[in-house]
Amino acid sequence: MDLLTELTILVLAAFVGFEVISKVPNTLHTPLMSATNAIHGIVLLGGLYLVGPADGFVDELLCVIAIAFGTINVVGGFLVTDRMLHMFRRRD
Amino acid sequence: MYTTTASFLQDPDFIRSLYIVAFSLFIYALHEMNHPRTARRGNMIGAVGMAIAVVATLLIESVGDYGLIALGVAIGTAVGVPAARSVKMTAMPQMVALFNGVGGGAVALISWAEYREALELGANPELDALIPILFAAIIGSVSFWGSNIAFGKLQEILPGRPIQLPGQQFINIGLLAVCVGCAAAIASGTESEGLFIVILVAAAILGNMFVLPIGGADMPVVISLLNAFTGLSAAAAGLALDNVALIVAGMLVGASGSILTMLMAEAMNRSILNIFKGGFGGGGAAPGAGDGEEKPVRSTDAADVAIQLAYARKVVVAPGYGLAVAQAQHTVRDLADELEKRGVEVRYAIHPVAGRMPGHMNVLLAEADVPYDHLKEMDEINPEFPQTDVALVIGANDVTNPAARDVADSPIYGMPILDVDKAASVIVLKRSMNTGFAGIDNPLFYAENTSLLFGDAKESVQKVLKEVENL
Asked: Is B432 exposed, middle or buried (0-12, 13-18, 19+ CB in 10 A)?
């Protein structure tokens, strides 16, 4: 994909993000932040890409740490958000 | 035509389609976050999107070394799951800071690994990949170290007060210049891993330097900004790796973090630049604090508070971070239950910066089983104060200070506040007569309709609860 196509996607994503997130109420800002936190853990994919072609100890080490960090970010982020949102309920 | 299922699954177009599904699910997940009723499902949809993105990547032909992948994922799961399960809701800001930090760290490491790989193949990457790599390295490293410092401050491993070196701003500008200078040298053709490491290290020091001078009360802004940084660095990594899911997901987070940063700065009526110059939360005599004379305050006791509350029609609780520190949220909910049994309407007025991160107070009260429709945002509750019989201020100070509204030369003038002083009667639960975080005197305490109940917030509420039960 050429850079300009990617930049187009980037800019559109920014506007979509602003629209969607402006509608989230203050009440949910902590879970919102923790969920978006989990979403940026998607950098994990970068580690998956690079570990295959990597050879040599340093390259492999960098990739494994990156994958571990990304996994902490993703798994921990979604779990903790779920824990928080579970508490938001109406009184019966 | 495909001869086997395997070759279909490995078709780059199929994999790209999966990425489109994944980022669509992320957007839908964030859309579902617009109401407490649907938010939990939204979070799960986001997790499904993530699973699809990971599986799609594992299908790619060049992705291999599954042993190492499993090792990384296993380590990450072993650390992330117990942390997420056991963290206390009061400690949520530092947990989010930590998760944010590892995300930034992953971005920095990936950019480094990618640069090394390009050098091993014999040359710098093409510019359209190289520039995002350099950007990701700088911002990822700043975010990793900045988040760690924020974690340290929130966890009270590091002192919460601002730590500042003389000429700090020049040091920061110098560090940024080193990062940009080295990045420009690499971009203009120098092939050097050494320079790349200099960038990572300078950005690391910059990350430390820029969070250290920021006081504890400004943490909601810092955490939001670091969140935006990690998102943007992930989007940059997406540009470098030609991965649409990364670009969109990173940018969504960048947008979210930016919005929250602006909202938090607005709620404190301070420019983001001003916050990063630091020093505000540093204590010391702020103007307006010391006019020298002792002003009379009216102190009250639990029995009187109980009577006022029990015979009110409407009570609004204004909680501040002091309530969370005293762990009083459950006791407050018990008191509210008791009052509601007597027909009193109880609502909670939540200032945007009532906790240590955006929306933190709402989570703490939700944990104490306060129904979310009783949690009112500032703009929603302020018009209701004139019809409120009793405003109960617990562990909050600056966010209720009428000087922010009325005194033009007050340092917090212009900051939006909860108009608790407009209630018929105001009861402030306070540990002592110390000024708040900003070190500014609060005229609310001397107002005619205000009485103060001194003591630990939790103990005071317990005493009031007992008195109400005995009425």
From this structure: exposed
User: CB under 8 Å to B239, separation ≥6 — which residues?
Assistant: A3, A6, A7, A10, B128, B129, B132, B247
- The model carries a pTM of 0.91
CB contact under 8 A, B72 and A35: no
Residue in B407, B171, B100, B344 with CA at minimum distance from that of residue A77: B100
Distance CA A88, CA B89 (A): 13
Listed in sequence order, the residues at least 6 apart from A61 whose beta carbon sits closer than 8 Å to its beta carbon are none
Q: Is the minimum CB–CB distance between A16 and chain B shorter than 8 Å?
A: yes
| A91/B371 CB distance under 8 A | yes
pLDDT single digits (tens) B350-389 = 999 888 889 999 999 999 999 999 999 999 999 999 999 9
Do B259 and A21 meet the contact criterion of CB atoms below 8 Å apart?
A: yes
The domain segmentation of chain A, as residue ranges, is 28-87
What residues of B are in contact with residue A36 (Cβ under 8 Å)?
Answer: 30, 227, 231, 252-253, 256-257
Where exactly are the structural domains of chain B?
87-281, 302-470
Q: Domain spanning B302-470 has what CATH number?
A: 3.40.50.1220
B398, B419, B421, B441: which one is catalytic? B398
Q: Which residue in the set A30, A83, A91 is minimally distant from B362, CB to CB?
A: A30
- Residue in A with minimal Cα distance to B351: A26
